[in-house]
Amino acid sequence: KPRVLSGIQPTADSFHLGNYLGALRQWVALQDSHDAFYMVVDMHAITVEHDPKALRRRTRVSAAQLLALGIDPERSTLFVQSHVPEHAQLNWVMECLTGFGEASRMTQFKDKSAKQAVDRVTVGLFTYPVLQAADILLYRAHSVPVGEDQRQHLELTRDLAQRFNTRFGRTLVVPEAHIVKHTAKVYDLQDPTSKMSKSASSPAGIVDLLDDPKVSAKKIRSAVTDTGREVVYDPENKAGVSNLLVIYSALADRPVADLEREYEGRGYGDLKKDLAEVLTGFVTPVQARVREYLNDPAELDKVLARGAERAREVAARTLRAVYDRVGFLPPM
Ligand code: ATP
Ligand code: MG
């Protein structure tokens, strides 16, 4: 079976609709056809200022959400990044292959660092795409399901893998980004030209999976739309409505054209009301399962420990090969 790998940051108390539609839905689907490795990337979460207690809680909540959304730990290897020290070890080798100018071109860094004072921006935030490359290359992943915002980092990962192979001999698998076009970028409800984001969206702009569905319904009702009335998909001129249509279409598993027909001659209000209902139907059972997993943290930790053990076997093998190729003297 080809291998798939992806990760998500525990940077909030809940995942949002963008995370689910852009990435996690694909994670679940790819478990059947792939040997899957999925992780909570806590090492990435400390690239910005954070609270240690919150990080620990969010790491568990993240794992519980992944299980509740359908990641099956019997079929997939589910683990926490910091449990596998090989990530930090391969990261160093990858940093020494990355050009400074190359790293400086990453637009996510430019966006995220622009929002903070210079002295608050960490070197870790600057080099995190390189750690991400190490995350992927350690598992020799063929496919990496992510949202559109990660496309550039995947390109960097491919470049680094190819560079390593050219310089030291074929060792690493060059991975492909798996980006589902339709839902690759879910937008902020209040600012439908920027992506919904755990760390950057305002509370009103973000639909959290673990929010009370009544709160989410209200956010959807207040979503920014244009002054027209026609429910049509037109991302250039009707960004807000188009975003709602994409979310609706994905959650209800119905083509956008179908929805356009259904809401012809009706206003945005009806669309928003029905979308809120579809969302409630989706999140309610997910939230119940999350609560169950969190009620038994010892069992949850056990699942993660088993995952880390499996992950380490694969990671250690790749790291040994890499260390050997770059000329590190093996310890006796
Ligand atoms: P942060 O703001 O802390 O970076 P985030 O919301 O971007 O958080 P990540 O943990 O960085 O979430 O990303 C997890 C996955 O979700 C990635 O594959 C990313 O591409 C995807 N993703 C994040 N936001 C969106 C979005 N608005 N639309 C589609 N996919 C998204
Ligand atoms: Mg992100």
From TrEMBL:
Q: Name one GO cellular component term.
A: cytosol
Which residues belong to the signal peptide in this entry?
none
Q: Where is this motif: 'KMSKS' region?
A: 195-199
Q: Which reaction does it catalyse?
A: tRNA(Trp) + L-tryptophan + ATP = L-tryptophyl-tRNA(Trp) + AMP + diphosphate + H(+)
- According to the UniProt record, what class of enzyme is this? ligase
Keywords from UniProt, A to Z, are: Aminoacyl-tRNA synthetase, ATP-binding, Cytoplasm, Ligase, Nucleotide-binding, Protein biosynthesis
Binding residue positions for L-tryptophan:
D135
Q: What is its main location?
A: cytoplasm
GO MF term set: ATP binding; tryptophan-tRNA ligase activity
Record's subcellular location: Cytoplasm
Biological process, per Gene Ontology: tryptophanyl-tRNA aminoacylation
Entries under NCBIfam families matching the protein: trpS
Q: What's the subunit arrangement here?
A: Homodimer.
Q: Which family does the record claim for this protein?
A: Belongs to the class-I aminoacyl-tRNA synthetase family.
Q: What is this protein called?
A: Tryptophan--tRNA ligase
